[in-house]
Every structure is written in C-alpha cells, then in structure tokens.
Predict the 3D structure of the following.
Amino acid sequence: MKQCARLAAAMVAVLLAAVPTRAQDLAAFEKRVTVKTLENGLTLVVCERPEAPVFSFFTHVDVGSDREVPGITGLAHMFEHMAFKGTDRIGTKDYAAEKVALEKVEEAYAAYDAERRRAVGRDEAKRAELEKAWKQAIAKADEYVLANAFGEIVEREGGVGLNAFTSNDETGYLYSLPSNRLELWAYLESERFLKPVMREFYKERDVVFEERRMRTDSQPIGRLVEQFVAAAFTAHPYGQPVVGWPSDLATFSATDAAEFYSRYYVPASMVVAVVGDVKAAEVVPLVEKYFGRLPAHRPPAPLRITEPAQRAERQVVLRETAQPYYIEGYHRPDSRDPDDAVYDVISDLMSAGRTSRLYRSLVRDKKIAAGASGFNGFPGDKYPHLFTFFAVSTPGHTPDELRDAIRAEVERIKNEDVSDEDLQMVKTRTKANLIRRLGNNSGLAFQLGVFQARYGDWRELFRSVDRIEKVTKQDIRRIAQKTFVPENRTVGILESTRLAGTAPKGGR
Amino acid sequence: MPARPALTVAVSLAAAVALPSASPAQVTDWKEIRKPALRAFQPQQPRRLVLGNGLVIFLQEDHELPLIQGTLRIRGGSREEDPKKVGLVSVYGQAWRTGGTRTRTGDQLDDALEARAARLETSGGQDSTTVSFNCLKETFPEVFDVFLELVRAPEFRPDKIELAKNQLNTGIARRNDSPQSILFRESAKLAYGADSPYGRHSEYATVAAVTRDDLLAWHKAYVHPNNMILGLVGDFDSRAMEATLRKALASWPRGPAARKVEASFPGPTPGVYFVQKDDVNQSFIRLVHMGTRTDDPEYYALTVMNEVFGGSFASRLFTNVRSKKGLAYAVGGAVGTSFDYPGLFSVFTATKSGTTAAAIDALYEEIDNLKKSPATAEELQRGKESILNSFVFRLDSKAKVLNEKMTYEFYGYPSDFLERFQAGIERVGAEDVARVARKYIERDKLAVVVVGRAADFDRPLSSFGKVTTIDVTIPERR
C-alpha cells in the first residue's frame, strides 16, 4: 500500500519537474495499471489503489445520442434507464410468463401506435380501444415485476453512487462496492448487458419525459441550450437533445430500445475500468468469466455524417420573463485533432479562476456578468463540436453588453500574444490538476475508462498534459484566428421581456 | 428482444474451460456468488492537538499524492447575522479572500497563487465561515504565509465588497427563474418562519445595508483561535507540521467565545401553499414539517426508516411514485436531521402539470402507509444491510476521516460518533421504525407547497384544503 503511494508520488513529482524522464514514471504508474482485451473485444482497465477495502468501476459504452436519427431521439438515454430494470433472473417472478406478456405489450402498442398516428381516416373509437388493450397488456406484464430489484441488490450489498449517464458521445454506468463484492459486481454488471429485459418500459418512458420537463422545458437555461445547439448543428446529431424530442419520447417502443441495444452494445464498444483495492490478477479472470459471456459482434461502422462548414452566422433569441443569458459557439475539430491542446489552453486562459480574462473583464471590471466562461467539448467532443462562450448577466445588464465584452476578449486573443507568465500559469495548473484527479477511485475509473475508449490508450490522460506543455503563443493566435470568425458562429440569447433589474408585477 | 445466436454458449463454455480459476459451473444466480469477508480495515485517525489559546488542530498524513489541503472552520455564520443585514456573511465570505490582505490586494493574491497552481478560498455558511487551501507540497510554505496573513490581517477592500454584493443581487434577481429554487426557498420559510435565522433570505435592501465596517466587526467578533478548528491532510510529516503550526499560531491571543443564535421552531402553519409560475409544464411539490436533530436518540431508527421510505432505488417513494406510477423523475423524502438545530421532514417530487393532484395523492398515500405499515421484516433487513454494508464508504479516504472528526468536534459530538452509528443501526428493530414513523411524521402538520401552472392541474389544489397563494414578487431596489 505504501509502496504504491510512493510510486504515484514519484510519478507525479517527475511529471511536474521535467519532460524527458516522464516515460519512466509513466512506467511506474503502469505497474498499477493492467489492460486486457477479451476475445469478444471488450477492454478492461484495472488500476490497483489499495487505500481502503473498496473499489469503483466505470463501464463506458461507445454510444450516445450520436447514433440517434429523427424518430428515435432520446433512445440511448432511454436504454440507459432500462439497464436498471433487471434481467431474465433479476426483477422477475416468472420470466417465461413475463416474456410472453411483454411480447403482447409490444403487439398491442404497435397496433395502438399505428392507429393514433394515422394521418388520414383515424378512427377515434378504435384508437381508444387499442390504447385500452395496450394498457391492459402492460398491467398483465407488470404482475411479474419485482420493481427495482437490480438497484436493491447493489444497495443491499453496500453499493454507493449507483448511477449512469448518457451524453452525446457515450453512455456510462458506475457505482462503488466494498472490495469483497468483486465477483458479485462482475456478475451483475455483465448480466445487465447480457440479458437486459425491457420491462416497465412505458412507465419509464413517462419518467424520462418528466426528466425532460424538469431539466429542459421548465428551466430557462434548458430551453436556451436546446434551441442553441439545434441551430449550431444542421446535419450532425449533436443538434439533437440527448433527452430526446417530445414527439419521439411519446412514440418510441421497447422494441426500438432492444434493437438499439443489440446494434450498439457490442463488447468491442465497451471499456470497463476498475479502480481500488483489487488485484489485476483477480479482476482479469473474473471479468473474462463473466463479461466473456457477451457475444462478440462487429462494432457499428463509424458515423458518416460530418457537420458541414458553416457559411452564415446563426442566431436564436428566446424572449422570456427570466433573467438574461448569453451564449455563442464556434465550430472546432474533434478531441483527437492535433490542435486539441491549443483549444484547451485558450479555454483555460479565458475561464479558469479569477485570473481568467473573461472573469477580469466581464465580472471584475465591467461588472456586467456574475460569471463568464469559454470552454470546449460542447455538446460533446468525440466529433467536431463547439468552442462555447457563456455569460450570466448581473441585474440591469443586457445580452448585448455581454456579447460585446466577450468579443473584445476574443479579438484580443486573436491579435495579441499571450504573455509568457500567463502561458506558464496554464501549464503549471494543468499539471497540478492532473495530480488532483488521481486521488479518488471513481474519478480515476472514469478518467481511465474515457481515455481508453476515446483514444485507445489510457496513457493519453498523461500525454495530454505533455501536449499542453508544447503549446506556443503562436499556436494560440493561429487557432483563435482560424476559429473565432463570424461565419463560424452561432449565438443564443435569452432576453428578459421585462425591463432588466425590476420586479415583475403581480408575481410569477 | 434480439435473438441471441448460439455463439453465446460457445463463448461462455470456452471461457469456463480456459480458466482453471473459474468455478466449474457457470453461476446463474447472484445469490450463489461467494462473498469473502471484508479485509480488516482500521482507518488512519488524524492527530488532534489543542493549543494553549484554544485552537483545535487535526493533522492527517496522506502520502499518496504530493498535495497538502487545509480547512479552517470558524464558528458563526449567516444564522447569527443581523436580520437587517441578511447577506452579510455571504459578502464577508467572498470579500475576505477577494479583498486581499494588508500587504497585497486580492488580485495580487490571485496572480501569485494561480502561478503556483494553488487554491486558497474563503466562504460564508449558515453556522460557520471557512478558509481552505489546496496546494502542491513544495508550495506549502508560500501558501501558508498567505493563509496566515489572510486570517490575521484581511483588508476587505471596498471594490471587492461591491463585487460580492453584485453577485448576491444577481442571485436575488434570478431567484424566481427556477421553480426548484422557489419551492425550496418558500417551503423553508414556511417551515422555519420567514424571519427565522434558518428561513430568511437576503433582499436588495439587506444587501445594500452591509458595510465594510460590518465585515471588519464580524471578523473581530468571531475570528479567534478558541472559535476555530484547523484540519490539514496531505503529504507532510505531522511532527514537523505541528512545529510549523505552533510557531505560527500559538501566540495568537484568545478572544470572546462565539455565541450561537437563539431560535424557536414552532413548525409551519399547516395548509396548502401555491406559487403560480407560467413558464413551466411541470409542478414542483414539497410537503414539509419539522424534523429533528442528529443527536436525537431516535436518529438510528430514523435513518433506517428514511432508507425504507425514500432514500434509495428500492425505497417506497422511488418504487411507487416513479417506477410503478411513472409520475416523476425526481422523488424523495426523509425526516431530515441537522447537527445543532432541527432539520425538516420533507417529501419532494416534480410531475407534469396535468398530474399535480395525482402526485400529491401518491405522496400522501406513501406517508399514510408509512404510519400504517412502517417496515416489513424484509424492508427492515434490506435497509439495515444497505446502511451497514456501505458504511466503509464513510471512511474510505484519509480526507473523509479527517472531515468526520472535524465535524464532530465542531458540533461537540462524541469523537466516536461514527463508530456509535454502526452499533446504533445494528440495534434498530421493526418496532423502533414503527415508533419513529408514528412520532415524527404528522400528516396534519404538513405544509403542502406547490409551484406550477394552476390552469393545467388535474384537480384544483383546493381539493387538498384551503389554499394560500404566496406572492414571490421581488421587492424593488431603492
């Protein structure tokens, strides 16, 4: 335990000091990390960190809303919810009977859905009858359900942080367990992807719709962001909301979700990272035994669509009673681009802390914003995406003022060299922030999993810091001049319809 | 479901054959999986020192990474501030750091610290203010010097006081934009009282009333070694660190002891309360009345009850309101506890406008049911196992162990509170859960608070009782 701690410390110390010896100390970190690709294509990353008798894992599946097309938007996220519904052995009183009942639900839903969406000659009485039959079929299938049995097992065994997320790029599953539950974890986590059952699908679809109402429809910032990305991307699926458009959430079926799953949840698209008080020599055979059960399948072909070059500036304006927000985004290449580190440096200069340019201009000096930042990775980073500026106004100040102040900083970074001190500050901070990311099982599992999946090698977590080290002031101006041009820009404004800073009449 | 080809069998058989370490037959049921005993684990405890001036120090070595972190927690927070100057502690917590020290402005500190990738921040909370830092080991001497100067000689420069007020005023202007923010603010005011130190909030006028002299006076009143706890965790030798701290802090004279604010807790006036919000398609609902304190002897039984009621995936609220009825994404509830004042019993959900009444019905049903049938043997066992098996996560890092100890020290709890917790949970029986459900949950004492669009509701809120409409109009700036 102590030895490992020293290794980590030594590795990090050298990372900080000098570049030439880095490889050697990455090698030291490598002694704690084991990578194994199973015969079916699934990749396992294990990092031994025996601080306390616990471990965390992160399952990264290389499918997010990027694989959705109109009609099934929101389906990746919907499947993520279904991955908590159990299997043919967990969550059911009698799977054989439940399976038949679930098939009947799908038949009834297909009939109802066809009638209700008939554009010409829809028979309302028939629609109502089919809807009733569908609901009856659901009630029948629900009789076999042991609700939330999967989550119950995990929690009962001491699991914490049981959660999952879906982004534009990927779907992730995570929790932590005491380290004596390693084999149980290997069973549960593989089982949920081996035999997922689409039980309680339509109730869960309602739950997801409520999630949409909560995060998007009923929040001013949610409404603005959805409109903004829809305007910024005309062809690439990044323009679609991860949670899905309302029409699709009201329509897609359990059959759709199962098809989506079988196409994209293939072992070759999965990386599982395990970090904590475990030995690679124990984890590898357990993962081979349990995750090895997932049938090998050819991974889906890469997406064909690339967002075409933008030719005209776009703008969306929401006129609301809420206080203003301002957002503007510029298209940039994906995160594997050789200039990715340059964008990271620009983001850091613009946004990190009270020394950042946007803070000092908009918040400290002009006092027009309560917060302002410029960041990469929106809405994802696996594909060409946006460098985005965002600002929140102080009372009485308008989006136009925010825009002008942001643009002034953008022009500055295009036209003036960054000082040596500022550039060095970014580089020092990047190294320190890497260290701060290494002392936590679940954080480390997430990082190792994402880097292994995105770049094919977890070492990129360390190498990305080296690339920051090589960024020059000329690089910064080159990239800023290339990126921050009007025709490459989309603007999103949430305007307050009442005079900013005054009270609404009669309450809201 | 997609058809699974015969390949499944081939792959799993091959795996079983190839691995002698694997059990001979493929496991088909999670219950068959062996669980070895958890290895013995004695979390490393921090060293506790008390200086002659009353300053309590905890030192926790952690050599995993070359970092040092520190937190200074000082008694006295927003609940103790002048009711005419609500927001004072928040302004103080920001301007303390940004306003700099006698020798350096806050901006100069920003430049110096950022160049070293160090963080040093102050903040104002409900019962305390804090100064915390996080730095690379080799920068500790410089960062610690800044820390000392900031604690002993802050300057609260006026430009940064204005900046902090600007931040607070932004919060005031935006506080009705999010339905959750309206709901939690208004329900806390109803439960604790709009003028209570635990329910009140700042207005433009109370922020405007805060002066630099107020901040200096606050600092003079509270920042004394006998009112604070300092905790450090990281890559240091604790003997050497002790010497450094003694040298820097032992001569600091004592000051008057901080006094905790007096407050009474009558609980909300029962009834239905409504805030109209036009730009939502969902209703945000919270049912509240008074809860209790963490040092209540019934805390353990309540913890188990909460787990069964609303604290987990398998809880009744999650399973019934979310999974079975599909009424909500967010749902939860518990008898809340706080360390030195009563928390709230609170049940929350958000549902589409058209099922507002149905969701309130569903919450009432779960509340009534908890009293009628408190916890089955199965639920009791599940709840206890979940709490006990996950207990190790309260102590799985040296920083967490330090934080626990600092918290108990701050509130005057026994330092082995966490060990007692484990034993306390083990002792909870079904009758205990039944008793606390009867004692701590009282349907007719509830304030039912709803934020939403009344025109779209499935039934008028008046079907639940007399409705009081809350006017959330923000008082204008003068």
Remarks:
- The CA atoms of residues 91 and 165 of chain B lie 6 Å apart.
- Chain B touches chain A through 107 residues (CB under 8 Å).
